[in-house]
Amino acid sequence: MGRELNKLTALSVRNAAAGKHADGGGLWFHKREDGGGQWVLRVTVHGRRREMGLGSAAEVSLKEARNEAAKWRAVARQNIDPIKERERLKREAARHLHLLEEIAEDAFESRKAELKGDGTAGRWFTPLKLHVLPKLGKVPVAEIDQIDIRDTLTPIWHKKAETARKALNRLSICFKHAAALGLDVDIQAPDKARALLGQQRHKPSNIPAMAWREVPGFYGTLADESVTHLALRLLILTGVRSSPLRFLHESQISGDIWTIPGDAMKGRKDKTPDFRVPLSEEALSIVEQARKLSRDGFLFPSVKRGVISDMTMGRLMERAQLEARPHGFRSSLRDWIAEATETPHDVAETMLGHIVGGAVERAYRRTDFLEQRRNLLERWAKHVTNGAILNV
């Protein structure tokens, strides 16, 4: 056998003429007319000859080719087709390269365009990052089953019900993403885990809101010209959500109109029109005061960098021993509209930036009720600043 092996040398390979050159033991060097070459191993399995490529001579040395040939000859001696075995091992390796954390990151990247601000706030990825990936991130997604998911989410299923629900929904998206990539995953595993986890005991509650009759009293306590006080006052007067208010930039205001970019509106998708907010005289006065404290064009900067956080306004109300929270002022405004005015439903809902009606109806209705909302917010400002109740 020794005489049949290792017939070639590195020099003979380099200087070989075009054609096929045997090294022994089924290893051949195929030299092409263009000067390139290929290593090929010939073996017989189940009475059938198989030719297995071992790579280009430019990338695989003679020594490496011999080592590979020896490995696959050993496989063939077990009556296993080395070509099929290599493909099987490649598929197995591919499965282990696709860890859940990799799939989750890829799924997140592919969905960024659908998320507000391209998902920079991190809310889509956070439930996975905090509660799933620490336990399952390094596990190949094809090996994760409903038991793994159940055991991972059980600690928070009832204690942090909403977060757990979001984490499970994100996992479902990840599994569908993995399936679309061609991975052999159990796409039903998240739904099976949901069945194993059972009904959540936690019942979601609405964010505490202040009764609209009590708003003037609280508004009067926001007497200084600090960023937090000014931000809360404008939040109350406009009924917008915290995020667009905190990121209010000088460029968004023109005259008495504040235009919130469509992608900053909750639940809005691409190509959604910007949302115009009419500013009352009181709101404009606050904007002028905030301009004196602005930084880089942002009217409500934080102490160090960026803009104030949602928690900053929330803590102020907490320190005042109030149950209500900043987001609740949207409910205060909506209740005032319902109980103290005779505003049509569509106008009232548009006031809060809600989408009203179906797609066809919205296609034909081009108005955003700007003037009606302007009048309403002036009346709301008068109520907030002096407690007047206008039943009109």
Automatic annotation (TrEMBL):
Domain Tyr recombinase: 202-377
Keywords, in A-Z order: DNA integration, DNA recombination, DNA-binding
InterPro entries, sorted: DNA_brk_join_enz, Integrase-like_cat_sf, Integrase_catalytic, Integrase_DNA-bd_sf, Integrase_DNA_bind_dom, Integrase_recombinase_N, Phage_int_M, Phage_Integrase
Family note: Belongs to the 'phage' integrase family.
PANTHER family assigned to the protein according to its UniProt record, in alphabetical order: PROPHAGE INTEGRASE, PROPHAGE INTEGRASE INTS-RELATED
Protein name per the record: Integrase
